Prior knowledge:
- This protein is of the alpha+beta class.
- Helix content is 26%, strand content 24%.
- The chain has three domains: 4-95, Rossmann fold; 97-123 and 176-331, 2-Layer Sandwich (D-amino Acid Aminotransferase, Chain A, domain 1), CATH 3.30.470; 126-174, no CATH class.
- The longest helix has 14 residues, at 218-231.
- The termini are far apart.
Amino acid sequence: MSKSVMLTGTGKRYDIVSAFAQHTKVVACDPNPLAPAQYAATIRTSVPLIKDPDYVPALQRLCEEHDVGAIVPLTDLDIDVLAHARADGRLPQALVPDPRIAEATYDKYACHELLRDHGLPSPPTTLPHVAPESFPVMVKPIHGSGARNIFPAYTPAQAEFFVDYIDEPVMFQRLMDGPEFSIDCLSDDDGRCLNAIPRTMLESRGGESIKGTVIDDAELVDLGRRVVEAFGVRGPATVQAFRDRELGLGITDVNTRFGGAFPAPVYAARPGRSYPELIARMAAGETVAPHVGDFQAGTTFTRYFWQLELDAELRPTGRDIVSPPGPPAPR
């Protein structure tokens, strides 16, 4: 019998929720009843804020009520909470890493150290009290997200300015001179990498990739697999890396969730092997065989905005500003 998949922090990720809803019953959770992505789910429900002591108990009640077999967070905000709830047995369905890894990947300097501990490439990185080996560097918040407060510094004076200007702890990381890539990975409940699909970063906005092309790059595929298996990732992860002209590959971020360019690995997957389908199968207790490197390269995605009209009871009206809704059909 199939089980439900719970998605937390759904926000505006209508693309992710609707993709899951094509393959299984989806329980969408968000503190905001107007979160648009909930309207693509089978069940939409508001839950307490993550810091509320009732957050995990509320998820537990929903898991029991709707027979949830897997929980997938869609933001960074509750990964640590879910990791601890999985570790202590309250939410064993959560597809998140162990608490130590969840905490380290949320802390960009700790993530740098973790990568180096595992022999994985990370650009030279220091905290502000240690002078960088060279300039230019990127001044980055240690707990940043969405490309917030990231600035290049070409001199020690500029770096010192940004340390004072940014109102949160920061670090210095070598400014990589070369193209940027993301690797969209998926691992099973035992931390085995099922697939790793690399893509270019043609354009990003607010830290999210909005245009990119899936590429056949064996070095990037292997790098993604090595990272998620070294970290014991469960479920989705996005590994971001640059290919520096001097240093070669260097990992600048590891997010243990779906990336902004979620459509890329969906388009690239072989039939029956999209990440939502594989997670639905894992939720039902099925063992999925790894197929790392088996995908269709060459597809390009470009993301855009859309919207819903709701009535006075916050129910979708089904109307749209164009007819039929969505982009025009090819002619």
